[in-house]
Design a protein that fits this description.
This protein is α+β, with helices and mostly antiparallel strands and 245 residues long. Among the domains are: 31 residues, no CATH class; 30 residues, no CATH class; 94 residues, no CATH class. The chain contains 4 helices and 13 strands. The strands form 6 sheets. Strands 2-1-5 form a 3-stranded antiparallel β-sheet, with no helix packed on it. It is elongated. The N terminus is likely disordered.
């Protein structure tokens, strides 16, 4: 019996020695809180470090980056110069390089850039020199001779008239005066709805081509003899007289 008991005790001891303690497979606990620490993540990058899309750590913004306002000044070699210089951004503000100036410090009536042919500076804009005229913003200045002014006046009146004579009946038409300081006319037959716009256009032509250019000193003023107007609608167009369209 004693031999049997000893044999059983020895067998039980041998079986227990081959088992692995549970504590050997567990991750170490956090010393402060007792929480289990994942040993596989012990060397992971801190979560507050910025990463790129591919997982690489992103570079931080350089410490010396300048912060200037969005609007930079216009720098030039002198007031009115056509030569511009690139502004320089300092730590927090723009500045013009040495040898240049900020255009904002120039007089408000300064004309900038290379002057177009036959122009002078007036109130900050290039305008035709005396005795010359410009018929549109993109057109060059031309000498305001009698022939040039008369042709421009007729072209201006035609431009104001075209497509403004549509009508359905005689009552839709009216005669609008077209005389200027350049010359007299018999008026133009127009749709009533276009009468005021035509008058405004004639006033502008009169000022630009006749008064501003001293037309009367270059060309003789002429006033034609006009028949009594009888505006009418002929073939959907307003005419000066139904008897003599």
């Amino acid at each position: 019996m004693r031999y049997l008991l000893l044999t059983l005790v020895f067998a039980a001891a041998s079986c227990g020695g081959t088992s692995t303690p549970k504590s050997a497979t567990q991750a170490p606990a956090d010393a402060a809180s007792g929480a289990t620490v994942d040993a596989g993540k012990a060397d992971a990058a801190p979560t507050d470090i910025a990463q790129n899309a591919d997982g690489a750590v992103a570079d931080g913004a350089p410490a010396d980056v300048s912060h200037c306002p969005v609007d930079m000044p216009t720098c030039a070699t002198s007031c009115g110069s056509e030569v511009l210089v690139e502004a320089v951004c300092g730590a927090t503000a723009w500045s013009c390089p040495a040898g240049s100036i900020d255009a904002a410090t120039c007089p408000p009536d300064t004309c900038w850039g290379k002057p177009p042919a036959d122009t002078v500076c007036a109130k900050g804009q290039w305008v035709c020199k005396p005795g010359w005229v410009q018929f549109s913003a993109a057109a060059p200045c031309v000498e305001a001779t009698c022939e040039v002014l008369q042709a421009a006046l007729l072209a201006g009146i035609d431009s104001l008239t075209v497509n403004h004579q549509l009508c359905g009946k005689d009552e839709d038409c009216v005669i609008v005066a077209s005389s200027t300081a350049c010359q007299g006319t018999c008026g133009v037959a127009l749709s009533k709805s276009q009468a005021q716009a035509f008058k405004d256009g004639i006033a502008a032509l009169d000022q630009k081509l006749c008064k501003d250019t001293n037309f009367a000193t270059k060309c003789q003023y002429v006033a034609p003899k006009c028949a009594a107007p009888a505006p009418a609608c002929v073939n959907t167009q307003c005419v000066y007289s139904k008897a003599a369209p």
